[in-house]
Design a protein that fits this description.
The chain is of the alpha/beta class and 381 residues long. 39% of the residues lie in helices and 13% in strands. A 7-stranded mixed β-sheet has the order 1-7-6-5-4-2-3, with helices on both faces. The chain has a 3-stranded antiparallel β-sheet with strand order 8-10-9. The model has no long low-confidence stretch (mean pLDDT 96). It binds pyridoxal-5'-phosphate.
Length: 381
């Protein structure tokens, strides 16, 4: 650290220089991120609550009440009743780790049965929690094979995980069927980190979306991230659980803190500005606003698919959500070639394909311009 402080202008100039080399969602080049540009109102609310820390909730009863309202709203959106408890955490990873932490402590068991398509946060969770991953293969449609999962059930299983919107392909496991094979007392956690703010609105748009949430009796917990399709600021994930009492099993006394009324969480001090941002976003958009956003994303996804087909490229699956994976000869090579032209796209591993995440900041013009570059690359330009 320098011995004396420096002038504001110099610091700001350096910050601006750093920001200039970051990719921003407004730059029109990012098709790889599962986050997007938050609403302006979300940014405003975030700045207003920048001091807030629900790790010491006694000092922030106002923020705490916002968190409760967000959880109640989200529970209503995800088929829950007033009994659902939960909290805003840093994202899908923390929500998934916490869900398995609770499952381990309630059941005193160690095995977690999950599909091959899970987000890597479940492998992190098993590592941290000393739990044993039992990986289940997928059907041809890339959903979890229920018969195989059923064969994995034994007295050591603490939890089964289903995914409502896989990271790579955006497919939805048959959560109802999973609930049918999960024995009494075993947790069924649904990772809807991405799908939680998409599937309810696809349903409003008339898409056939099987029940994936608390409307399925056996579902014990759900992750859904406001900082993905929820249009809120980072860091904002949500964990909802069916029984508030389960949080007691991960509770640790914190005598020096004023934590009255606070749910136990993995983090101590935590950024709670995103709670206010999420509250503001959900109120400002309502079901109608989110439905419009999801509809626009699906429209751009369909546009991208039509454009790809014109070039002779086929999708791995017809997109269920706003994620499009294309079969190309060398996905990694194509990703690198597009990267050299300033495009940020990603690749999926199963099966190897070029992956486009069509978030609200992705426009048809962007898609057209990206495919024009891709056409040139494929043509050897
Ligand atoms: C399905 C799913 N679960 C969990 C996560 C992890 O979320 P985060 O990066 O917010 O921790 C992701 C991230 O992409 C995801 O797609």
């Amino acid at each position: 650290m320098r011995p004396a402080g420096e002038p504001r202008e110099k610091i700001m100039a350096d910050l601006e220089a750093a920001l200039a080399i970051d990719y921003g969602f407004s730059d029109g080049r990012v098709l790889s991120s599962m986050c997007t540009k938050p609403l302006d109102l979300a940014k405003e609310a975030h700045a207003m609550f920048i001091e807030s820390n629900l790790g010491n909730a006694g000092l922030y009863p106002g923020t705490l009440s916002l968190e409760k309202q967000v959880i109640d709203e989200l529970s209503g959106l995800l088929g829950g009743s007033g009994k659902i408890a939960g909290g805003i955490v840093s994202g899908g990873t923390e929500a998934n780790i916490t869900a398995l932490w609770i499952a381990r402590n309630v059941t005193h068991r160690k095995k977690v049965v999950f599909p091959k398509s899970v987000h890597f946060s479940f492998h992190k969770a098993c590592d941290i929690l000393g739990m044993v991953p039992v990986v289940v293969d997928l059907n041809e449609d890339y959903t979890v094979d229920i018969d195989l999962a059923a064969r994995m059930m034994d007295k050591d299983v603490a939890a089964v995980v289903g995914i409502a919107g896989t990271t790579e392909l955006g497919v939805v496991d048959d959560i109802g069927a999973l609930a049918g094979i999960v024995p009494e007392g075993v947790f069924l956690h649904v990772d809807a980190a991405f799908g939680g703010f998409v599937l309810p609105f696809l349903r409003e748009l008339g898409h056939k979306i099987p029940n994936f949430d608390f409307s399925v009796g056996g579902v014990t917990s759900i992750s859904a991230d406001p900082h993905k399709m929820g249009m809120s600021t980072v860091p904002s994930g949500a964990l909802l659980v069916r029984d508030r009492e389960w949080f007691r099993t991960i509770h640790k006394d914190a005598p020096y803190l004023d934590t009255l009324g606070q749910l136990s969480a993995l983090s101590g001090t935590r950024c709670s500005a995103a709670v206010a941002a999420t509250y503001a976003t959900m109120r400002s958009l309502g079901r109608e606003g989110y439905t419009r956003i999801v509809s626009d994303c699906m429209d751009v996804t369909a546009h991208a698919l039509a454009r790809a087909r014109k070039m002779g490229l086929e999708p791995v699956i017809e997109p269920v959500m706003n994620i499009l994976c294309l079969r190309v000869a060398d996905p990694k090579g194509m990703q690198e070639a597009l990267d050299r032209r300033g495009w940020k796209v990603s690749v999926a591993r199963n099966p190897p394909s070029l992956r486009l995440v069509v978030m609200p900041h992705v426009t048809k013009q962007m898609v057209d311009s990206m495919f024009a570059d891709m056409e040139e690359i494929l043509g050897g330009a």
